Amino acid sequence: MMSKNKKLFFLAQRHIPSGVNSPVRAFRGVGGDPLFIRRGKGAFIWDENGKRYLDFCASWGPLIFGHAPEGLLRRLAQAVRRGTSFGAPTAGEVETARRIPAFFPAIEKCRLVSSGTEAVMSAVRLARGFTGRKKILKIDGGYHGHVDSLLIKAGSGGATFGTPDSAGIPEELAALTLTVPFNDAGALAKIFLEQGKEIAAFILEPVPANMGVVVPESGYLNLARSLTQKHGALLIFDEVITGFRLAPGGAQEIYNVKPDLTCLGKIIGGGLPFAVFGGRAGIMDKLAPNGPVYQAGTLSGNPLAVSAALWVLEQLEVKNFYHTLNGKAACFYAGLENVLCDLGFPAKLNLSGSMFTLFFTPQHVSDYASAKNCDTARYGRFFHACLKQGLYFAPSQFEANFISAAHTPAQLKAALKVIEKALKASGK
Ligand SMILES: *Cc1c(COP(=O)(O)O)cnc(C)c1O
């Protein structure tokens, strides 16, 4: 008899292109069919066949408290009784926007939107409108949602499928997007020297996580700041993954670099569709209706998403939240490094706080080119060996995995045993 997962995937493919609503969900990066998830609680998810998995994918980053935390469920239940959308200002929106600068001092004013893609798209338009320039500079393998201008040499699904450039984007538009390899100070200086006057913004994930996790080399983000400033371009940090993940104030707090604009998403919405873009008031005030740059949204600042965001912000302010989470993650990484060392396994663990990627390559991974050296077939075998034993990692080599506050040290320790066996099995 066909399993329920298989049956659903069969049906899904008839009605939804490739059977999924977002490409990396289709498991093409690891082979096999995707699981259909029925429910989640704490660190676990259950598929439609009733099998349980310890979840390291966390809905691709948002679930820093794990699945279905009771406090959030209560808050949402209260909020939904007041209505699901008004298309008019609400007190909750003001409270959310008022609280964000305490986490991100670089955000003096912000707008609330419904997805990371929308936040980035709006920030890019604003940067062009503010500077009066056309060109956007990004990183090879940097992913910023499926914004037309930024689906050029893009990571995440672009990396998984080897389609970093999408069909449907006119060359004339693509020509306005420049790219440089991450961590290459020389390439960055050169492009600003040559085209600095035409660049509206340099947008990057300060700690790229969509080619797998790659950390910035010392001084790189400072160089990005000084070059943009010198040439009159805006610096946009896309912290949709890293914001509220690495520290209360994201990567910009850790590396002490203040961008002009910041994009946030994923964690702040607690798993609801919610994102934010914001920055210097002088730039943000260029938005309509006071300013000339149009930006809007029927569901922007949605009251359910806002109630979730306010709950998330409260929880993140709990004393020692990041210290505890990152300490637990560090313990897991130490165990994983031991396993790799004992096995003499050709892999590199890249990490930042509670997010990590195990790259199946013996070489240091510092940019997109070095990430692409990975043995993706072997990653696929590793992924499936883990899945069989109840561990759910991101179904692609080029993604981040996440440890949440709901993961217990005992669960993580047990996971290491499974990982060790799966690494061994992946060689065959
Ligand atoms: C996930 C992500 C996005 C896109 O967010 P969506 O909510 O999927 O549209 C943008 N930038 C980065 C860095 C992301 O990780």
Task: Give the topology.
Blueprint: H1 4-15, E1 37-41, E2 44-47, E3 52-55, H2 70-81, H3 91-103, E4 109-113, H4 116-131, E5 135-139, H5 157-161, H6 171-174, E6 177-180, H7 185-195, E7 199-204, H8 220-231, E8 234-238, H9 250-254, E9 261-264, E10 275-279, H10 281-284, H11 303-316, H12 321-343, E11 348-352, E12 355-359, H13 368-371, H14 376-388, E13 391-392, E14 401-402, H15 409-425
Helix pairs in contact: 2-11, 3-11, 7-8, 12-15, 14-15
The structure holds pyridoxal-5'-phosphate.
Features:
428 residues, Aspartate Aminotransferase, domain 2, 2 domains, four-stranded mixed β-sheet, 15 helices, 14% strand, globular, binds pyridoxal-5'-phosphate
Walk me through the structure:
This protein is an alpha/beta fold and 428 residues long. The chain has two domains: 4-68 and 320-426, Aspartate Aminotransferase, domain 1, CATH 3.90.1150.10; 70-316, Type I PLP-dependent aspartate aminotransferase-like (Major domain) (Aspartate Aminotransferase, domain 2). The chain is built from 15 helices and 14 strands. The protein has helices spanning 4-15, 70-81, 91-103, 116-131, 157-161, 171-174, 185-195, 220-231, 250-254, 281-284, 303-316, 321-343, 368-371, 376-388, 409-425, and strands at 37-41, 44-47, 52-55, 109-113, 135-139, 177-180, 199-204, 234-238, 261-264, 275-279, 348-352, 355-359, 391-392, 401-402. Strands 4-10-9-8-7-5-6 form a seven-stranded mixed beta sheet, sandwiched between helices. A four-stranded mixed beta sheet has the order 1-2-3-13. A three-stranded antiparallel beta sheet has the order 11-12-14, covered by helices on one side. Helix 3 runs parallel beside helix 11. The longest helix is centred in the last third of the chain and has 23 residues, at 321-343. The radius of gyration is 21 Å and the shape is globular. The site of pyridoxal-5'-phosphate (PLP) has 14 residues, from helix 4.
